[in-house]
Amino acid sequence: MRLPFSAALGAVLVLAACDSATFSPDNPNQNRNQGAAIGAASGAVLGALIKDDNRGDGALVGALVGGAVGAGIGYNLDQQEAELRRDLDSGVTITNTGDRLIVSFPQAILFASGSFTVRPGLNNDMAALANSLQRYPQSTIQIVGHTDSDGDAASNQQLSERRANAVADVLLNQGVPFNRVRTFGRGESQPIATNFTPEGKAQNRRVEIVILPNA
């Protein structure tokens, strides 16, 4: 039996959203379930486009495949997040958005003021992060440097680039493949707190390692 595309897609979206517990903050599988729902909806649309002669069947097939892929990505992110929280310094912030992990190192534990040489005391954390990246190889790693607004904007941009590259060098030396790593400097352009207080400036001086799963 062939289903109309609208009926097939509607069924997929209803099934993805029907369990209110799926997105509960207390659900340990929240990101896995969210990934499955997003993957199912995306797969349904893609499947319908590819299987143009029978869009309803294509949507259902795409939903099944996309849901499985999305669930796998969400599960791996949950697992990797838990391991990183266990292994990294308590000053490191880890954010799981459901489609990526953002591991944020404050400048104070990474670098001396004005420096772009990674502190030797971070060797254990860098080794733990590198090991994690190698245990979960199906991802791209973006390393992004940020500064506060003190000083010249051009100098801050250069410093943020050098710090991102310095962290990348440490991870590469720990065995993370070169082709998985991208570095960026954002200077003072992306603050996460006010630059009018010392506490806010300290939050803005950071290096973020963004782990993006490959679909």
UniProtKB/TrEMBL annotation:
Say if the entry is tagged with keyword Repressor.
no
Keywords associated with the record: Cell outer membrane, Membrane, Signal
Q: Which InterPro entries match?
A: Bact_OuterMem_StrucFunc, Gly-zipper_YMGG, OMP_bac, OmpA-like, OmpA-like_sf
Q: Where, by residue number, does the polypeptide cross the bilayer?
A: none
**Statement: the UniProt record of this protein carries the keyword DNA-binding:** no
Q: What is this protein called?
A: OmpA family protein
Q: Which PROSITE patterns match?
A: OMPA_2, PROKAR_LIPOPROTEIN
List the subcellular locations. Cell outer membrane
List the Gene3D superfamilies.
OmpA-like domain
Q: Where is the OmpA-like domain?
A: 98-215
Tell me which domain of life the UniProt entry assigns to the organism this sequence originates from: Bacteria
**What single Pfam family name could you report for this chain, choosing any that match?**
OmpA
Signal sequence extent: 1-16
